[in-house]
Amino acid sequence: MRLRWLLRADGHILVLALVAVVFVLQVCALPRKIPHADGAVVGIAVSLLDYGIHANAPEPGSTAKPAPSRSMAPGYPTLVAGVAALDTRMAQSLRCLAAGQADCLERNSLRPLLVLNTLAGLIALALACFLARELSGSAEIAGLTTLLMFIMGRFADLVGGMSPYPIVLMLTLGVCALLVVAHRRASLPAAALAGLALGILALIEVHYALLLVPVALLLLAAERWRAMPQWRFGVGAAALLAIAGSLAIAPWMARNYVLFGDIALVQGTEARLLAERIAYNNLSAGELLAGLFCWLPGIGDLSSLVLPAETQRKFDVYRDGSLLQDGARIFATTYTAKVPGSGSEGQAWYLLHTYVFADPLSHAASSLLLALRGLRTTGGLLVLWGWLALPLLLRRLRAQRGQGPFLLVAGPLIGIAAVQAVLTPNLPWMNLGLVFVYAYAIASVTGGLELPIGLRRLMARDGVDRAADAPFPARTLPAAARSAI
Known about the structure:
The protein is mainly α and 485 residues long. It has helices spanning 2-8, 11-28, 39-51, 75-85, 88-98, 111-136, 139-153, 155-158, 165-185, 188-202, 212-221, 231-260, 269-278, 285-295, 309-314, 323-332, 347-356, 360-376, 381-400, 403-423, 434-446, 453-469, 479-484.
């Protein structure tokens, strides 16, 4: 009976069910591998568990209470500590790692965190389906978008360790969904919730705090594409979003002011990421072309056949010979250096003054290259296909006056990629949310999703019966989607 019901289900429902089942099966195979644990996250999580303060891990063998710190954003270590507080085995493994011991992790010691990441991944896919449905008005396009995003995003790899990125992806798409709801329904509470979610994101990835004002202005600008603009709502929604986002990070800023005398969210993390980012400055023209070839969607997959192994390692991720490794040397120079005229040590400001302000053209050129790295994400040829489909999608949106809702989704995701390219090495998984933009473009241009002809014939009689019994006519695809098929 259940199989018969499944075969009678609409195509998008069947696809969504299969995506969820495949995702869960992929994740179930992950505990066979020993997961990777971030030492910085582990140290702060153990300090929260044992002392109730955000601090780096105490020295091995020390019984003294560690001093408060702000070496990294508080959101993810706090989440890890909260999960460990509910699981004794995980807490013991974290304490073992913090003490510098070996062989601390067993196959299932981080299982609660894996379950949480899996749930976040499933919610992210559900949000992608919701966004595509809201933007297109088509359940079929929503189903195809979700399927493409799952294929392009390599979700099982994303959730398989101690990583904040499944949570970040879920919150990022949640912000976009709330922005669309706020615009479509003129809802001030939805705008406030979007700001709150963006503030929480900043407590996980500190650079996202820079998006509060631009996203608020984007919500206001979206009124331009409404048939009857509601400028009063736009101004109120933008103000509420900025205020709610600021309130989310205000307690952490107040804590830092009391303890350290300023309101900076972190100290050290931003400089370390900036040092890794600056390692890409001063590339020669040939190196820029090599990096472009390595990171170009689709084409970059062929770089191993053309470029020497040494060049590939240079643009690879955290491996011997990569430019990222040079970031440690650059960061080490900031401990004793001072920014001229500041009178105090400032690692990030020193790096900006020495490497960015002194040579802005090199930083701009490498920023464009790293933006390409973020735009590539993990989709290969599918991302390239999405690039080619975007212009056609934008023309259709302009004809339908649908640019506003689409830009409320694409704008924050592209903004994140731009911020990461300027201030961080912009590693591919940091911008996984952009996969949604490409998946939606492909789904919208190609039309929709239909079951194979054989299955449709099996369900044809049942479909006629359901249509006859329905009090209203069956819902059809919108005109734009029908014309694309």
